[in-house]
Amino acid sequence: MTTHPYDALMDITARPKTVFVRGAGSYLWDDSRKRYLDFVQGWAVNCLGHSPPAVADALGAQAKRLLTPSPAFYNEPSLKLAQALVENSAFDQVFFANSGAEANEGAIKLARKFGSVHKGGAFEIISFEGGFHGRTLATMSASGKKAFEPLFEPKVAGFKKARLNDIASVEKLINDNTVAVMLEPIQGESGVWPATDQFLQQLRALTEAHGLLLIFDEIQTGMGRTGKLFHYEHTGIAPDIMTLGKGIGGGVPLAALLATERASCFEHGDQGGTFNGNPIMCAAGLAVLEEVGKPDFLKAVTETGLLLESELQKVSARHGLGGVRGRGLLLALDLKLPIAPGIVAQAFEAGVLLNAPQLDTLRFMPALNVAKAEIAEMIDCLDGILTKAGAARRVA
């Protein structure tokens, strides 16, 4: 076992001492050669699994050609990726960023610019209780995460919180200062709570009636995660602004802000970034989009998601747990008890990586090309842990 300099990194979260050194598909290996089945995948980042050949090859080829010429100049991969995203979506223009938080920050800025230009200086954005949009000051302020409330005061003003799937709670917050409504179609961090298709349709009608922008944060749901390339496609409506992150880079730091022509009102100097749209990251994004866009890929995601959902429902029934929430390959299992961290720890020891966004919830975000046998392996591990936990509770 190698000795690692752990203390040199800022201690910002609890981490096991395990150090991962290699990944392939649904598996990771640590420096002791132990193998782990990964159903977290960087929080839905590695949409094609660890180190997919398509992404690795694109990175290597682009690295030999051009890393970055500066954002003051065009580069070929960013132009191609922007065009491909526009052709496959309801949007007209794209701004590339390095993280989901940065893309969401850009969406907030774009909405406020729209309010300044078109709505007499309107600047307030309605977001939602339980929502999560990132860790910049503005995106933390937009988030409805309780743990953020006492942090880094004073927050950025101008965000009011409505309740998910409650259209009346949105309507009563609208005033002359309102410029937009912003939400995740599925709230991931709070435990995988979906907005219903009907609610999203109601939001579209309400925002259009009041001349407001509708912003979808698809950082976690975009790029095929729910069985469509973008989640909004399930609903029959489209937002004015959408943000992408996580899966779009397939494991590298890439994000995007997409907007309709009507919403695109940035002027020169309003937005930028040293590494935004750099060719090496956009080359990875092109490789991801090409794979996810293959004819049968999204159909397979839907089928695999239904299989995982069915298997989780069976586990729930066997152990007297709660429901399964989510869509496609973004799912959660309600444990009904605050035992999720313990299950995650036991699964880790057994070589399976799971995520507990809440004390009573497990979240599942495997690679979009996860195999049926890998789902079975994870289910067997989870079932075994729950069986032991149930026996221990009965003895107690």
Automatic annotation (TrEMBL):
<feature type="modified residue" description="N6-(pyridoxal phosphate)lysine">
    <location>
        <position position="246"/>
    </location>
</feature>
<dbReference type="InterPro" id="IPR015421">
    <property type="entry name" value="PyrdxlP-dep_Trfase_major"/>
</dbReference>
<feature type="binding site">
    <location>
        <position position="132"/>
    </location>
    <ligand>
        <name>pyridoxal 5'-phosphate</name>
    </ligand>
</feature>
<protein>
    <recommendedName>
        <fullName>Acetylornithine aminotransferase</fullName>
        <ecNumber>2.6.1.11</ecNumber>
    </recommendedName>
</protein>
<keyword id="KW-0032">Aminotransferase</keyword>
<feature type="binding site">
    <location>
        <begin position="100"/>
        <end position="101"/>
    </location>
    <ligand>
        <name>pyridoxal 5'-phosphate</name>
    </ligand>
</feature>
<comment type="similarity">
    <text>Belongs to the class-III pyridoxal-phosphate-dependent aminotransferase family. ArgD subfamily.</text>
</comment>
<dbReference type="Pfam" id="PF00202">
    <property type="entry name" value="Aminotran_3"/>
</dbReference>
<dbReference type="InterPro" id="IPR015424">
    <property type="entry name" value="PyrdxlP-dep_Trfase"/>
</dbReference>
<dbReference type="InterPro" id="IPR050103">
    <property type="entry name" value="Class-III_PLP-dep_AT"/>
</dbReference>
<comment type="pathway">
    <text>Amino-acid biosynthesis; L-arginine biosynthesis; N(2)-acetyl-L-ornithine from L-glutamate: step 4/4.</text>
</comment>
<dbReference type="InterPro" id="IPR015422">
    <property type="entry name" value="PyrdxlP-dep_Trfase_small"/>
</dbReference>
<keyword id="KW-0963">Cytoplasm</keyword>
<keyword id="KW-0055">Arginine biosynthesis</keyword>
<feature type="binding site">
    <location>
        <position position="135"/>
    </location>
    <ligand>
        <name>N(2)-acetyl-L-ornithine</name>
    </ligand>
</feature>
<feature type="binding site">
    <location>
        <position position="274"/>
    </location>
    <ligand>
        <name>pyridoxal 5'-phosphate</name>
    </ligand>
</feature>
<dbReference type="InterPro" id="IPR005814">
    <property type="entry name" value="Aminotrans_3"/>
</dbReference>
<dbReference type="InterPro" id="IPR049704">
    <property type="entry name" value="Aminotrans_3_PPA_site"/>
</dbReference>
<keyword id="KW-0808">Transferase</keyword>
<dbReference type="GO" id="GO:0003992">
    <property type="term" value="F:N2-acetyl-L-ornithine:2-oxoglutarate 5-aminotransferase activity"/>
</dbReference>
<keyword id="KW-0028">Amino-acid biosynthesis</keyword>
<comment type="subunit">
    <text>Homodimer.</text>
</comment>
<dbReference type="InterPro" id="IPR004636">
    <property type="entry name" value="AcOrn/SuccOrn_fam"/>
</dbReference>
<keyword id="KW-0663">Pyridoxal phosphate</keyword>
<feature type="binding site">
    <location>
        <begin position="217"/>
        <end position="220"/>
    </location>
    <ligand>
        <name>pyridoxal 5'-phosphate</name>
    </ligand>
</feature>
